Amino acid sequence: MPSTDRVKQILSHYASENPGTLTNLYRLLNTGTLAGTGKLVILPVDQGFEHGPARSFAPNPEGYDPDYHFQLAIDSGCNAYAAPLGPLEAGAAKFAGQIPLLLKVNNSDSLAKVDAPCSAITSSVEDALRLGCVGIGYTIYPGSGARNRQFEDLRELTLEAKRKGLVVVVWSYARGAGISKEGETAMDVIAYSAHIAAQLGAHIIKVKPPTAHLEQGEAKKAYEKAGIKIDTLADRARHVVQSCFAGKRIVIFSGGEAKGTDAVLDEVRELAKGGGFGSIMGRNAFQRSRPDALKLLADVMAIYKSALRQPRLQRQRGQKAVSTRW
Amino acid sequence: MPSTDRVKQILSHYASENPGTLTNLYRLLNTGTLAGTGKLVILPVDQGFEHGPARSFAPNPEGYDPDYHFQLAIDSGCNAYAAPLGPLEAGAAKFAGQIPLLLKVNNSDSLAKVDAPCSAITSSVEDALRLGCVGIGYTIYPGSGARNRQFEDLRELTLEAKRKGLVVVVWSYARGAGISKEGETAMDVIAYSAHIAAQLGAHIIKVKPPTAHLEQGEAKKAYEKAGIKIDTLADRARHVVQSCFAGKRIVIFSGGEAKGTDAVLDEVRELAKGGGFGSIMGRNAFQRSRPDALKLLADVMAIYKSALRQPRLQRQRGQKAVSTRW
Amino acid sequence: MPSTDRVKQILSHYASENPGTLTNLYRLLNTGTLAGTGKLVILPVDQGFEHGPARSFAPNPEGYDPDYHFQLAIDSGCNAYAAPLGPLEAGAAKFAGQIPLLLKVNNSDSLAKVDAPCSAITSSVEDALRLGCVGIGYTIYPGSGARNRQFEDLRELTLEAKRKGLVVVVWSYARGAGISKEGETAMDVIAYSAHIAAQLGAHIIKVKPPTAHLEQGEAKKAYEKAGIKIDTLADRARHVVQSCFAGKRIVIFSGGEAKGTDAVLDEVRELAKGGGFGSIMGRNAFQRSRPDALKLLADVMAIYKSALRQPRLQRQRGQKAVSTRW
Amino acid sequence: MPSTDRVKQILSHYASENPGTLTNLYRLLNTGTLAGTGKLVILPVDQGFEHGPARSFAPNPEGYDPDYHFQLAIDSGCNAYAAPLGPLEAGAAKFAGQIPLLLKVNNSDSLAKVDAPCSAITSSVEDALRLGCVGIGYTIYPGSGARNRQFEDLRELTLEAKRKGLVVVVWSYARGAGISKEGETAMDVIAYSAHIAAQLGAHIIKVKPPTAHLEQGEAKKAYEKAGIKIDTLADRARHVVQSCFAGKRIVIFSGGEAKGTDAVLDEVRELAKGGGFGSIMGRNAFQRSRPDALKLLADVMAIYKSALRQPRLQRQRGQKAVSTRW
Amino acid sequence: MPSTDRVKQILSHYASENPGTLTNLYRLLNTGTLAGTGKLVILPVDQGFEHGPARSFAPNPEGYDPDYHFQLAIDSGCNAYAAPLGPLEAGAAKFAGQIPLLLKVNNSDSLAKVDAPCSAITSSVEDALRLGCVGIGYTIYPGSGARNRQFEDLRELTLEAKRKGLVVVVWSYARGAGISKEGETAMDVIAYSAHIAAQLGAHIIKVKPPTAHLEQGEAKKAYEKAGIKIDTLADRARHVVQSCFAGKRIVIFSGGEAKGTDAVLDEVRELAKGGGFGSIMGRNAFQRSRPDALKLLADVMAIYKSALRQPRLQRQRGQKAVSTRW
Known about the structure:
Five copies of one chain form a homopentamer.
Chain A (H helix, E strand, L loop, with lengths): L4 H8 L6 H11 L10 E5 L2 H5 L1 H5 L8 H11 L3 E4 L1 H7 L9 E4 L1 E2 L12 E2 L3 H6 L4 E6 L6 H17 L3 E6 L14 H13 L4 E4 L9 H10 L6 H11 L6 E5 L6 H13 L4 E3 L2 H4 L3 H19 L2 H7 L2 H4 L3
Parallel strand pairs in A: 1-2, 1-10, 2-3, 3-6, 6-7, 7-8, 8-9, 9-10
Antiparallel strand pairs in A: 4-5
Helix pairs in contact in A: 9-11, 11-12, 12-14
């Protein structure tokens, strides 16, 4: 498939990267149902590591088998499949080339009782190359006590990944003593977390959908003074995208805990309306039965596609500074 | 001996590995009494490091001599013998080629008073090659404070071992502030620990037989909601195997503390019934007299063999999603 | 696009390679007009280095611009575009991801007066990664005085390329004091040259179409004794494919010097009939005007496609030992 | 299978090597029909590289497929299969573990017109590890102009191979300006060539069966003065074995060009009688039909086995100094 | 055994070397019958490589077995045993620590027809370390066309050997177009060859006993003008020692071809009288029967010992400048 204008435009925002990284970014953007649209839906399956196998796969036991997720990502038309080392090794030879892979190179588990989350680095750029991945994924916890070590580890992985032509995806979740539970998804905190990932050189940024809560006093003043619109999730998504270099970095949103289909689709509708680049949808996909998962993912992709048909309108309503850019 | 269908099937689950690793995996699976069955019994002797010589070898003083264990593993028809650097060096030349060796590359002792267990890395992949080992063994303590350093050290050892054609065996024992003593062998915790080893890229996973206890609140809900059968040890073993990529990773069970012969065999019977790939049996073997140890190991192997004769029946009784896979 | 049975079959012949290499092989085989058929047409443009710019590009001056060749490869539906470092750097960012790239890592020029051809290594595996290539290309001159150095350089490049998940394509052209001009394309010499590339670990082998001449005395006896059919080019292509591990290595044919359209298509028809995996067509493509080149390449691809519709018939006519394998 | 006294004795001659190398030597000696006897029959297939595909495989076209040779080596009960990189890669994953592999790391072809043969190094110790080989094979041409470079390249490969636990097999063929065609298989030249391989640290040495010709003047005097028996091939084989550290290095004989079955068996009978450790039989095996090859190899192995039943008698007839040693 | 004044004095001449090298030099000087005297007799067995096995070992067939030479060196009270890689590997484990070993790291053979001798480097400093050698031995051919490459290879080996605490022994034999056959053992040529070895950093230098011939015109003038005494072999040996840093480098003499016992002892008597540090005696030792060899070596050692009892007298007769130094 030839490149589209939108994909060319997105790639132009990463012109400092070498052609290897651009090539892998192109592969991500030109695979599956949303190929060429500039929108992405990624299937991530690291919940086995993070929450344990039963909490992850018992609702749909086919998911115990890593092959299941490769096949689900392929059949549903996802742009990529993201997972830790073990599951990728389990299927990478069998499904070689059929779906772009992202190696999740750090992971945390919920067996340890810890004050602050801190992922372990569990695989490497060399693993990503030998497994044929288009990029690596890495989680940071801005605000947490261990953030600096995380940023520094990421710095080394990023430097190597970019030299070898890989894409760097950063999961950014604020945590820590200075942030309330509610604050973890606050508008200002999510925007700030996403921005830190962009500052660290991430090509693709993944955050949770933000609420209308504003956590930090100084930030709250700034939001109010500038009259930033954060009433609807679409408004908030738009602001997150703006916070990632005015839409020049791909930002996608996680679906969070498994929930009802309507709730998922409503959320996606808002994210798409706000100019979100897409969704990374794990539990809401693989914890459903395969037919339900395929249906849901198809509906999600349809929403992102339909959002493209009315861009002019959307932009007229959006903030000018942003609308002219993506 | 030519390859069997079952061994071919198991190797196919490791298709992303190079032929060197497949060759060593084949050697493990095609040695001893259980050669070709896809089942394994391994003799591990790292207790001298972990508990001191008297606690380990005084019950059967022949065990002070490393040669004794090589010979016991060979004569009993084990698939492999696993030990730290020193004991392997003591006998590797004399017994070269007679039994697959696994170099236990990290160890912890019980002289130091520590809050959380943390093994030291005591040998290397290069040692494994010069000693003629088929693979390395490594212990992780998921849940412990030092787990991340362990995972990260394992990541580097695994990458090198796989590049050089070795097998990676991971001993996975949950520990730590967030886990009660009873919880260390809880169903959910054992399944989770085994799953983490699989996620980290282990080829073979060793855990303790799980009890019916459920430790973590969120996990308990998941087990109950999904109606996961955990009443008998066979049920629980089946769930552990399922938790290791739906049976696509080899998972074996330790015998734990020395105990009566009937107790050992009853436990093995259940593990075999539940589809466990085998046992790794240290103290229950080498702390018995040589004749008793040979008899016990022969009985254990006979149980795993007889379990193979009725697979169809077993599978019909097992959970459907799982039974069709291994 | 999902994998086809034929692509799966081809990949199965490379099962010793890591998933990274399989992934890039898949990309090559699943791009362009011939995607999924197991057939390939590749556009190579290294003639500027080999013969100088005027001899290469004056017939169609658009070819002075490296972008022209990227676009031609994309628009014509080629599987890949192959070129030395400079031209790939010139367009790799602009066309990132739109066409699989092969970095030709050694090249020879015709400024130097040399008795025996010996290419210089002009780029590296690291270059291939940063430019987003699916593999590297390397020319050997079996029979030449410098062949050993070439084989030894290739050995190191191959080891590194395979570790990092790249495909290795070997151009194999016999030359040297012991080979007559006519012998360079002799049946036995071409088959032997292709076989040497396979022996050296090449994934894809490129040779010239062989003539019915037999060059070496000992070989001639062997051909006559075994009654190897070499009357038609189809026969000869079939024998070259057989000589590359009974069809288990991809072998493609170069078009050689620019010639008339009918001559090109007649040749391709025979190569396709003989089971050739495809063509690598440089001067015959880029020295024609763009419309003519597009037409020619489309016709070539159509021939390879139509050859697939009658495989059973072809095989019945082929030599039994071979026909059952590919 | 437990070790036999003979295998233990042989391994004792390599006591300076690390257990890794001893383990791989043990694997070689404990595989196939001759397992445990201290005798070996190895299937080598590097003729495709050396003489071209048609001369090698046209007599039995199944041999074009690398899988054929793996299967032949396994089914015939050979101790090992030796081949260059490409063919080993073609089958190493599929046949992983079923037969010890030797990677032939240098090769020469017969396309080049050369005064003195000089193999190119075509693969590495790292390749041997990733493919699961028990060792590497290397050809030297003592007497040739390029011998020193060969010895020096071998020195580095040997050092690395031994550090990583691999076996080193050296093919030793005298050639060069100072040696007549007849001299290449002369008694003194073969013994000297074998001895040079032993001096260079080879574990296993392969030479051609010697004739009764004596090539070098000084050597002739020494043979005559000492009354070394060289009348029968058995006498000559015994002297070659003696020349390899009095039987403390494994020396095996090549079958040479394809010939009649009786000729092959007569030769093997003499080699066995003279205490040869075995045969490496390529063309005489794979150029026959599979049933004929299986029959021939079985007969060859039977001869080596039967030679073991009457060792006392043989030794009484042999030279005293030697007879007490092997 | 505590160090003697003479050994301390000798070691003081190597004070720039690290203690590791001094330790190994001490071992050489404090082993065997001549321990502590500052005199050395070394058994070298590289003739198998240089002249072939029959010419070397047929006169005394026990010598085919490398163990024989280890035992002979030990039982005869030699200071060291020197040999190439293969023979040292054959016995180094069995005889570990019983006799200082010197690894002969380059060797030449007499199968090749060559204009100028040029040894191949056949082992390495790493080999010397793993085999427990006290040092390495290396042959140079000053005057030959390949001398510079030899000196440069030696430079690298020497640098590494000294860094790792080994002793460097240099065999120095002049050869080449500018030197007549008679000149190879000429007084001036031997002295010059020994001096070059000293210049290159050798710790121990081995040359042939010089004749009274003077080869080079300019040298002849210098000898005559200075009135250097070269009438007796003792005179000439004294001059060679003087030429090696006035006796501050250990210089030993080879016995050359096998010859009659009286001839050997007469030669040694002169060498000892002239202050030679000792003999390196190969064929004259191992080509005799074991009892004869033991007797000869004992006699040789007795001569060196008795020479020590009358040093004052000798020195009065010698040149003053030298006599005060050793």
